[in-house]
Write a structure and sequence with these properties.
The chain is an alpha/beta fold and 465 residues long. It has helices spanning 5-17, 48-54, 75-84, 98-111, 117-129, 141-148, 152-159, 166-174, 179-188, 191-204, 216-226, 275-295, 303-310, 338-342, 365-374, 422-431, and strands at residues 24-28, 32-33, 60-65, 68-73, 88-93, 229-230, 271-272, 299-300, 322-324, 350-353, 359-364, 377-378, 393-394, 397-398, 439-441, 454-456. The chain folds into three domains: 5-116 and 124-132, Conserved hypothetical protein from pyrococcus furiosus pfu- 392566-001, ParB domain; 163-273, no CATH class; 296-416 and 435-456, no CATH class.
Length: 465
């Protein structure tokens, strides 16, 4: 049915030169066929009363196909005319290629008042998919934008709606999704998860009227919590192309919002919009960590055991017997992680998964403290500093907003003296600090040492929160 690119361009040039309008004919409805590429002409209930009372006032456009005609645009008018029982319909007839017919359909749709965004998106998608005999596309998004008188960003944004699956498209046309929430779903939820997500939406907002639009703010919050993933919180390297070879690295992925600002202009730039891919990388990373933990004699907790450890939160409870190996130790003035502080003394780890699916290497707090204490390690707190847990602290230290633990602002009780020297020790403590002995201390960052530990002049026993 199609013609060559040169022929199509020639016809367009000839059409542009012609100023004579095409004659309007009345064509029998039973000689006209809908276009096979017009996926959904939309609801005609609002059009039927007008056609029944006044007839079809604006002619449709058709093109000859053998002994019959195919609709180029105006299918809603055609369907309304058939429904009210008309025998014929006014139309203009023009011999067009597939590409020209689709172009005219897109232009006519763009000129309508408030066309459905999904209709526009599907028309753009069809036009961009058309290729010449050599396989070269007739249009790019930029040339299509010029054709319909829109910006390239507008075209890109509407093309994203074609990522909606059949169930979500039906919900969009039925009014459950508004234009803004449909864009959000298309950008954020992979096709494989959309049917399940729609069922979840309907369950979450079951209190609303049947068929009513889901509340935009609450839906956005639900999608952000469950389907959008901030890559700056990913536990794996974004540059790792071998973690899931078929997916490649996150740094160059087109589904990373920062790599396609035209599609994700209102999404944080460091966000993964493919939850399926992210979960596969998370699973691969967890399996890799589990192998390392088992090789080092550690333990891998089941999902049930992990839930008991985290108790429904993403942070360890304040009274947990574990500490996160990669979280800061708040007894350390430099806030280094437990893993960094322990070095080769690190006990056997336990791998657990928090409620968001992120794996964590945990250490038994008692073992970690004993390892440091056995090596004579302390954190160089000034005399008189006190170690103790403040209210609202987590297993790794305080979490009171805006107030980090300061080793210089809390006094520490001096260790009790022996029984035979209680009085003298008490008076000595009031007048001057106790005599210091040799100790081992953790070097500050940048200190030159062949091992993680070095000798110092004083000692104070390590106390934990």
């Amino acid at each position: 049915m199609g013609r060559s690119t040169s022929s199509a361009k020639k016809i367009r040039r000839d059409a542009a030169k012609s100023t004579v309008p095409l004659p309007v004919q009345v064509i029998a409805l039973d000689e006209i066929d809908p276009s096979p590429i017009n996926r959904d002409a939309g609801n005609i209930d609002d059009l039927v009363p007008s056609v029944q009372e006044h007839g079809v006032q604006q002619p449709i456009k058709v093109r000859p196909q053998g002994n019959r005609f195919e609709i180029v645009f105006g299918e809603r008018r055609f369907r309304a005319a058939k429904k009210v029982g008309l025998k014929g319909i006014p139309a203009t007839v023009e011999d067009l290629t597939d590409e020209e017919a689709l172009e005219l359909r897109v232009i006519e749709n763009a000129c309508r008042v408030n066309p459905h965004p999904l209709e526009e998106a599907e028309a753009y998608e069809d036009l961009l998919a058309m290729k010449d005999a050599r396989g070269k596309p007739f249009h790019t998004a930029e040339s299509l934008a010029k054709l319909v008188g829109r910006s390239a960003q507008y075209v890109y944004a509407h093309l994203k709606l074609t990522a909606l699956g059949p169930a979500m498209r039906k919900a969009f046309r039925g009014g459950e999704l508004t234009t803004s929430t449909a864009f959000l779903v298309a950008r954020s939820i992979p096709l494989a998860l959309q049917e399940g997500a729609l069922a979840e939406f309907r369950e979450a907002f079951a209190d609303g009227d049947e068929g009513a639009a889901f509340p935009a703010g609450e839906l956005a919050h639900l999608i952000e919590r469950k389907y959008l993933t901030r890559l700056d919180r990913a536990p794996f390297s974004l540059k790792d192309a071998k973690l899931v070879p078929v997916a490649g690295p996150c740094t160059t992925c087109p589904k990373r919002s920062g790599n396609q600002p035209g599609l994700f202009d209102d999404t944080p730039k460091d966000t993964c919009t493919d939850a399926v891919c992210f979960r596969s990388k998370l699973s691969a990373h967890r399996q890799k960590l589990a192998g390392d933990v088992i090789a080092n004699g550690g333990t891998v907790l089941t999902e049930h055991q992990s839930n008991e450890v985290y108790q429904g939160t993403v942070q360890l409870p304040w009274n947990s017997k574990y500490v996160d190996a990669d979280s800061p130790c708040y007894d350390d003035p430099e806030r280094r992680t437990w893993r960094t502080l322990l070095g080769d003394l690190c006990p056997k780890p336990t791998l657990a998964t928090d409620p968001t699916g992120i794996p964590h290497a945990l250490l038994l707090k008692a073992e970690a403290v004993a390892a440091l204490k056995g090596a004579g390690i302390e954190f160089g707190r000034p005399p008189g500093a006190r170690v103790g847990r403040r209210r609202g602290a987590t297993a790794n230290g305080p979490r009171t907003p805006g107030r980090a633990a300061s080793p210089s602002t809390h006094r520490r009780r001096a260790p009790p003296p022996t029984c035979g020297a209680r009085r003298s020790a008490t008076s000595s403590r009031r007048s001057s600090p106790p005599p210091r002995r040799g100790r081992r201390t953790i070097p500050r960052s940048g200190a030159s040492s062949s091992t993680p530990w070095r000798m110092a002049a004083t000692t104070t026993p390590l106390r934990t929160r």
